[in-house]
Amino acid sequence: MTFRLRLHGAVAGATACTALLAGCGTSGAYYMVREPGSATPYYTTSISTSGSAVKFKDAKTGSGVTLQSSEVRKISKEEYAQAMTPPTPTEIAQIVAFEKGILTAQSKDQAEVLRNISSSWSRLAGQIDRYNALVREQDRIARK
What is the per-residue pLDDT across 40-53, written as a single tens digit (0 to 9) for each? Predict the structure, then answer.
């Protein structure tokens, strides 16, 4: 069963990115923003700061968002486009089937195994994101 992992892990240096954005509005770039410890990301093309707060318009909902504590990561146009693309009907069917498997497990042990698999996938997605960020940073440093 194939799942498109859309979770974006925290990236080392997210705080530094926030500090670079402090006090100025940005546009023409793409950002993933989230509260520390939250698995739910926001996506935007413009960020402004006010003190320690980050303000932006969530691209998915169109709502204005203000976060007092945040992790900000600049992302590529391709990553932004993928995040804005809703899952396909096939992907939705796979997700629903997996969730039903958790809910209809024959025993507590089966349900626990399925929850552990889900948690492992989330951690793996975060590690892949961290690795990709490290590679991009090393490439950026090498180009200087």
Answer: 899 999 999 988 89
H or E element at residue 132: helix 108-143
Distance CA 92, CA 2 (A): 11
Using an 8 Å Cβ cutoff, are 3 and 121 in contact? yes
CA 24, chain centre distance (Å): 23
Does this model's pTM top 0.70? My answer is: no
Beta bridge partners of 67: 54
Residues 70, 55 contacting (CB under 8 angstroms): no
DSSP assignment string, 20-60? HHTTS-B-SSEEEEE-TT-S--EEES-EEEETTEEEEE-TT
